[in-house]
Design goal:
With 125 residues, the chain is of the alpha+beta class. It has a single domain (2-123), classed as Glutaredoxin (3-Layer(aba) Sandwich). The chain contains 3 helices and 5 strands, in the order E-E-H-E-E-E-H-H. The chain has a 5-stranded mixed beta sheet with strand order 1-3-2-4-5, covered by helices on one side. It is globular, with a radius of gyration of 17 Å. The termini are far apart. Mean pLDDT is 79; it is low at 8-13 and 106-125.
Amino acid sequence: MKKTTAANGKSATNGQPAMKLRLYVAGQTPKSMAALSNLKRICADHLNGKYELEVIDLIKDPQLAQGDQILAIPTLVRNLPVPIRKIIGDLSNVDSVLVGLDLRGADRKSQKNSAASGKAMGAGH
């Protein structure tokens, strides 16, 4: 199964997606299905439709593992933006996935600024 869809389910040919993801799975195993479900939820919550997701079933197309040097499954590969990132597992730890996809950096900065502002306001009282 090699399936490519844009976030909205339509072809992403109008322009380059902000993030290009490839999820390598092994059939319909519980871990593979969990990884796909978790990834779809993360994309919906954090990528605002600016991604392209390709799911590759290595049971049907094992030769496709060589291109991204896949050694374990499920594995998520982020091809765009560079650098290429790989995350192995069922993607159930959302924080780890966000860090791996470089989506957590902006959130941490805003949280630090909020925390610093809160401390500054609390210190004056």
